[in-house]
Amino acid sequence: MEKHCTDSRVKGVSTGTTILAAIFDGGVVIGSDSRASMGGEYVSSKTINKVIQVHDRIFCCMAGSLADAQAVIKSAKFHLSFHSVQMESPPQVIAAASVLKDLCYKNKDELQAGFLTAGWDKKNGPQVYVVSLGGMLISQQVTIGGSGSTYIYGYVDAKYKPNMTKEECLQFATNALALAMGRDNVSGGVAHLVVITEKGVEHVVVPGDKLPKFHDE
Amino acid sequence: MAVEYDGGVVIGADSRTTTGAYIANRVTDKLTRIHDKIYCCRSGSAADTQAIAEIVAYQLGFHSIELDEPPLVETAANLFRASCYRYREELTAGILVAGWDKRKGGQVYSVPIGGMLVRQPVSVGGSGSTYIYGFMDANYKPGMNKEQCMEITAAALSLAMERDGSSGGVVRLASISEEGVERRVILGNQLPKFSTH
């Protein structure tokens, strides 16, 4: 019997967290909860935003040590805008993911941060990338992360279908986050969701009392 | 896992026992008979749970003879709890006790590691259980009938087996009601499939 606790053993302020990204027909939804905790006993912030914009149509979600994640993202934003100026065009989503991956891989001994990168670019349309703790980079249709994600693997495997509509995907993401927040004590607060399509970016915030309620045992 | 319905209970388990990375038994039966209409689902150390189940089966059999009637599920659950709590430092055992009796019908009692006892309409346990809490919260509704309980149990176990390295093999199901015990096995290629992405 093993428990998956790697995120919640991080020292200092950690984003014991639930993050999620999913591709739908024409775009991508990326979302997270909003709780930051210290050691699983004290909620140091109820309304932290873990969905960070790194470029016009590229967003990142962070998990693990909040300090490490913020530092990496700050550096990644700089590298990405420099790259974008050099290329004279908006960066590809994989470029953003690769920059994060490089930082995580080269500093793997010191860092404890993982990322989901989701966005839209002209070449490949909507994409989702995962950079895990040691610096592996893979592309997936739907992905979840953080300590709360263990509780919703079954739900996501069962419920996600490729080529959903935007509304279906938003409902799926809201439900998944609500289920995880209901079971994981270091995830909670509000659900931050961002919808990215060719047309632009839309922020959706679902406050705690408006989250779907599920039957509790 | 175990699910109550009106008139009985449905219990289910995977069939994998591991020693480290080696699968010692890929067709394990983790649904153990304690009495005619009382079964338990074992998780944790196979040795610990087998030993406890044997002891409880003996104690319950003796108690049933003294009473001259079938034992209550709550009694079986309390016997498990007594052993699991008294020897909590030495044991690693998470047990679900489920069955049918005349007084309260179908019941599910959960005795997790540490030796707590709680009755729940639905309970999941074991290493793979963390992955299906969300699925169960979303899909279980009170008032389901036996077939629906079977389906949701098979689906939940398949999902957990797909994600947890320590779970796998076949799905063993059993339903316990006034009529008796009905056992089923669902083989790997017959398990419900979910869209792979």
UniProtKB/TrEMBL annotation, chain A:
Q: Per the UniProt record, which EC number(s) apply here?
A: 3.4.25.1
UniProt xrefs under PROSITE patterns: PROTEASOME_BETA_2
Q: Which residues form the active site?
A: T17
Q: Reaction catalysed by this chain?
A: Cleavage of peptide bonds with very broad specificity
A matching Pfam family: Proteasome
Q: Does the keyword Hydrolase apply?
A: yes
Task: Kindly list the residue ranges recorded as spanning the membrane.
Answer: none
Where does this one sit in the cell?
Nucleus
User: Would you say which domain of life the source belongs to?
Assistant: Eukaryota
UniProt keyword terms in alphabetical order: Cytoplasm, Hydrolase, Protease, Proteasome, Threonine protease
Q: Which GO terms describe its molecular function?
A: threonine-type endopeptidase activity
Keyword Hydrolase carried by entry: yes
A single Gene Ontology CC term: cytoplasm
InterPro entries recorded = Ntn_hydrolases_N, Pept_T1A_subB, Proteasome_sua/b, Proteasome_suB-type
Subunit details for this protein?
The 26S proteasome consists of a 20S proteasome core and two 19S regulatory subunits. The 20S proteasome core is composed of 28 subunits that are arranged in four stacked rings, resulting in a barrel-shaped structure. The two end rings are each formed by seven alpha subunits, and the two central rings are each formed by seven beta subunits. The catalytic chamber with the active sites is on the inside of the barrel.
Mind telling me what this protein is named?
A: proteasome endopeptidase complex
From TrEMBL, chain B:
Q: Where in the cell is it found?
A: Cytoplasm; Nucleus
One biological-process term from Gene Ontology? proteolysis involved in protein catabolic process
Identify the Pfam families for this entry: Proteasome
Please name the PROSITE patterns in this protein's record.
PROTEASOME_BETA_1, PROTEASOME_BETA_2
For this protein, the record's InterPro entries field holds: Ntn_hydrolases_N (IPR029055), Pept_T1A_subB (IPR000243), Proteasome_bsu_CS (IPR016050), Proteasome_sua/b (IPR001353), Proteasome_suB-type (IPR023333)
Q: Which UniProt keywords apply?
A: Cytoplasm, Hydrolase, Immunity, Nucleus, Protease, Proteasome, Threonine protease, Zymogen
- Give the principal location in a single coarse category: cytoplasm
> Signal sequence span per UniProt?
none
Gene Ontology terms for molecular function: threonine-type endopeptidase activity
Report which reactions are catalysed by this protein.
Answer: Cleavage of peptide bonds with very broad specificity
Q: Name one GO cellular component term.
A: cytoplasm
Stated family = Belongs to the peptidase T1B family.
Q: What does this protein do?
A: The proteasome is a multicatalytic proteinase complex which is characterized by its ability to cleave peptides with Arg, Phe, Tyr, Leu, and Glu adjacent to the leaving group at neutral or slightly basic pH. The proteasome has an ATP-dependent proteolytic activity. This subunit is involved in antigen processing to generate class I binding peptides. Component of the proteasome, a multicatalytic proteinase complex which is characterized by its ability to cleave peptides with Arg, Phe, Tyr, Leu, and Glu adjacent to the leaving group at neutral or slightly basic pH. The proteasome has an ATP-dependent proteolytic activity.
Subunit description? The 26S proteasome consists of a 20S proteasome core and two 19S regulatory subunits. The 20S proteasome core is composed of 28 subunits that are arranged in four stacked rings, resulting in a barrel-shaped structure. The two end rings are each formed by seven alpha subunits, and the two central rings are each formed by seven beta subunits. The catalytic chamber with the active sites is on the inside of the barrel. Component of the immunoproteasome, where it displaces the equivalent housekeeping subunit PSMB6.
- Which named protein is this? Proteasome subunit beta
Supply the source organism for this entry. Answer: Neolamprologus brichardi
Give the organism's phylogenetic lineage.
Answer: Eukaryota, Metazoa, Chordata, Craniata, Vertebrata
